[in-house]
Amino acid sequence: MLPDAGYIRYCCTLCALILSVWACQSGSSDTSKGESSFPYRFDAPDTTIVLPPSLREISGLSLSSDGHHLLAVNDEEGIVFFINLENGAIDSTLEFARHGDYEGIEAVGEYIYVVKSNGKLYRIAPDGKTETIETSLHGGNNVEGLCYDALHGRLLLACKGEAGEGARFKGKKAVYAYDLHNDQFLESPV
Question: Which domains, from first to last, does the chain contain?
Answer without folding.
Answer: 57-186 (2.130.10.10)
